[in-house]
Amino acid sequence: MSPDVKERLGKIAAEMVRDGMVVGLGTGSTAAEFIKALGSRVKEEDMIVYGVPTSLQAQLLAEEYAIKIVSSNVIDLAVDGADQVDSHNYISKGGGGALLKEKLVDYTADMLVILADRTKFVATLTTVYVEVHPLAIQSARRELERFGIPVLRTVKGKGIEQGDQVFITESGNVIFDVKTKVKNPVAMEKSLNQIPGVMENGIFTKESIVLGRPVGAPG
User: Fold this and answer.
1) Same fold, 3-118+206-211 and 127-199
2) For residue range 9-22, what is the model confidence (pLDDT) as tens digits?
3) Catalytic residues
4) CATH class of the domain defined by 3-118+206-211
């Protein structure tokens, strides 16, 4: 996604925020543009906005822009990016490694807004990210093979066979990147979370407003 597109989507989403709202702050470069745009509104319009960050990255950026950080079970609006968006607006997220907190915040929100450019839109989701407790790496891998080809994520993406280190999330877990074709996102989201040791998966089936879908994109 070009910087201009990210900035434009971020500004559009920021205009949806009202004074006094509790807002879920997504992780990633596109969500960062939303945080910046929201911070500008907070400063220019003397707004009070409370932010619930999905990662340390999001928290630090929000604090830089004078957005008050809170921990809340009541979230008016969450804004996040996406790795893939299918023809029914089901989402695949987790490429940035913050999917557990993103899922918690995004699903708690009364309204979820997803920012994506034309490269994110697909007919069918083809990669699913699964966060797993470290003690369940081997057993979860075997179960995940029923759904596709699971690859344990490493820091540099070279694989542990090449001496690379396993990627650890802020929650202390590991992530499997599962190559697959998601025919039924709702069913697969539920099935993956029934695997012992799986903390969360990156299929998002919650109803959302998707900004950025171009004419002619799938769906």
Assistant:
1) no
2) 999 999 999 999 99
3) 102
4) alpha beta
